[in-house]
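Because discrete structure vocabularies remain unfamiliar, we first show an illustrative case, written as a sequence plus integers encoding its fold.
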Amino acid sequence: MWQEFGIAFCLLLVLEGILPFLCPRLWRGAVAQLARLSDRRLRLMGLASMLLGTALLFLLH
């Protein structure tokens, strides 16, 4: 199980690094916009992301 967790974490780092590598200016603008969002909206986005990820894992497994 720990090996799969490590692999998933490495994939996360690779995927998170694609946008700043390919288009840093656009990525910086997106991060600046995220910084201006309210805590409530960020939490809702995080919840939606977690639920979508969980649903996709369930469907793929």
Q: What stands out?
A: The CA atoms of residues 24 and 30 lie 10 Å apart. The chain has one domain: 2-60. The chain has a mean pLDDT of 94.
